[in-house]
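[INFO] parsing input record for DUF3397 family protein
[DEBUG] input buffer:
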Amino acid sequence: MQWIWESIKHVYAILAVLPVVPFVLVYFGYAAVSGDRKKAFRMAMDVTTALLIGCVAVLFNDVFDSRFGLYGILLVLLLGGGLLGNVQYRTKGNIDMSRIMRAIWRLGFFLMSFCYVILMCIGIGKSLFAA
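[DEBUG] output buffer:
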């Protein structure tokens, strides 16, 4: 049973290192099956966000020598959800949780992509100049 868990961790780690690869695979795979490029793009964003969260958390912990990466990302996502829920409640009078979660997840894709690029550049620079 241990080898299954280890295999899943290794596959996740490989896919998370280069999040562009799973994005392209899901996008072209789903677009070929469904024929809907817009829905394929959204599906690729959703899958890649899960990989980016893990990768950015590890990069954050490595660059800043901390253990707060994943907790910080979850905190930002929760705060964003709360803010969006507040705006939705004030404008419409009710809260649609599925819509809020989808919006936060997709906004998280752009935030995590930006953080991934920045932290990757900082990490590469740190490893090059540390020697």
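[INFO] Residues 2-129 form one domain.
[INFO] shutting down worker
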